[in-house]
Amino acid sequence: MKEYDAIIIGAGHNGLTNGAYLAKAGLNVVVLERNDYIGGAAVSRELHKGWIYSNASYVCSMLRQSLHRDLDLTRHGLILVPYLGTVNFGDNGETLVSYPGESAEYLELKRHSPHDADSMHRFQADLARYAKFIRKTLLRTPPDPTSFRLRDIRELLFLGKQFWALGEKEMYEYVRFFTMSAAEFLEDYFENDLVKAAMASPGIIGTALGVYSPGSAYILLHHVMGDVDGNIGAWGLARGGMGAISKAIAGALQQHDGELRTNAGVQRVLVKNGRAVGVALESGEEVYARIVVSNLDAKRTFTKIMDRNDLPPGIYEKAEKFKIRGSSGKVNIALSGLPKFTGVPDNRYIDRGGQGFTGSLETMERAYDCWKRGRWSDDPFVESVIPSAWDPTVAPPGKHWMSNFVQYCPPTLADGPWTPDKRDRFGQAVIDKIERYSPGFRDLIVHMEVRTPHELETEVGLTEGNIFQGELTIDQLLFNRPFPGYAQYRMPVRNLYMCGSSTHPGGGVSAACGANAAREILMDLKRPNSVPEDDFYDE
């Protein structure tokens, strides 16, 4: 019977990253995936002949460039390009175009509000300053504030030093920022409704909060902490779709002799004498290893694949109460041609960007009200992008693929479970919204895939369809993620670790969770020289 050094449960991008680093350090690693494809939510799939859908995550904004270089992902085929201009549409058809050039951007804002054009630089500078502080924590293990270990004390001092460097005024503003709603934060800068709605959209993506909900300002910040090709805060698109990221990381895993098994769903983590010793697969096979690493979310890990009797008192209850409410849907559409939008000029920068059917703050909040009542809105917030406008690999020549991310879509409906009929009606509500701004859009549709939280849970394994594997509220961040006392990737059962987005720094295609967990595992195994020294802390 073959025994591994490490078993990683789930071949999402964080699980693959964790496995790649462990394999690079010389460990005998196997990554187990229940589906017949890898990538979790970062996938590229041909669901209609000739069209390649990124049918879950669709843009890359947080992939850590140091990890990109360290795993040599370019060698494994990964090409990222900046996501350029975006058009936001108001309730009455008015448009706001975001250009990559500063002068063009200023003139477009000035067309709506001279005040807002002048305020944009201050807004971006403040957001960048807040993001800079958080960015410094992404590849660091959160300290345990109750510990007296030298490592934790040093890390608390590091965070304190970085916070103190903000200055007195900025410290007050920063604390305020964490508790504010996105709408309140934006009111400090802008007066035009469409400008505010356009800037607010990142504050609601993937979260069960509205634009007026306290705490949604931080979600806005979470989406501008990445960089693409050296452009801080930029979003990017992967050539070949989001699955190209997972494929490249899997290439790094296999380069270092890591093993990857699909159709290998894990039914149970095996625990003996208080230690994780392996897993039992759905097929009945048992696989053993020195350590077990879960890339599943915290709720699924502790309430689905572990025996409650193997857990210390209170952990099962914490997992049950872990906030992981789903709020998002996805509609992927194969098109026979490039859609035209009313009032939008033909421009290659705009074509390589996206469309935000934002409406106003009030419209976005009403969609959230529908979610709270267990229904989808007939006027949903939709964020679209057409990657085929620049990437010829995802659609046949002259044809296009359009990704549509939707807020809000409830995991549980007031009138009963999701059914195929309800799913299709949700998809039609999205098509109706786009058709308002692109007459004739419906006639271009060749094929469409509609994904509600039900599909995201049953197919991808995201509990309730939550794309962050747990809400990014202040009570579930840093040393509270996933639970107080277990934020350093080591779980309450010996030799059991977590590496998914339920851990710090949270959701998004960053690979940081997987890399951070690998660092802690290698430290425990006394193999600290396998990643850059700058990523380590002395005990």
Explained architecture:
There is one protein chain. It contains 17 helices and 20 strands. The strands form five sheets. Strands 1, 2, 11, 12, 13, 14 and 20 form a seven-stranded mixed beta sheet that branches. Strands 7-6-16-17-18-15-19 form a seven-stranded mixed beta sheet, with helices on both faces. Strands 3-4 form a two-stranded antiparallel ribbon. Helices cover about 35% and strands about 20% of the residues. The protein has a domain at about 5-80 and about 240-320 and about 470-535: FAD/NAD(P)-binding domain (3-Layer(bba) Sandwich), CATH 3.50.50. The chain has helices at about 15-25, 65-70, 100-110, 115-135, 150-165, 170-180, 180-185, 195-200, 215-220, 245-255, 300-305, 315-320, 350, 360-370, 420-435, 455-460, 510-525; strands at about 5-10, 30, 45-50, 50-55, 80, 85-90, 95-100, 225-230, 230, 235-240, 260, 265-270, 275-280, 285-295, 330-335, 355, 380-385, 400-405, 445-450, 495-500. A hairpin with a 2-residue loop joins β3 and β4 (about 50-55). α1 (about 15-25) packs parallel to α10, α1 runs parallel beside α17 (about 510-525) and α3 (about 100-110) packs across α4 (about 115-135). The protein is an alpha/beta fold.
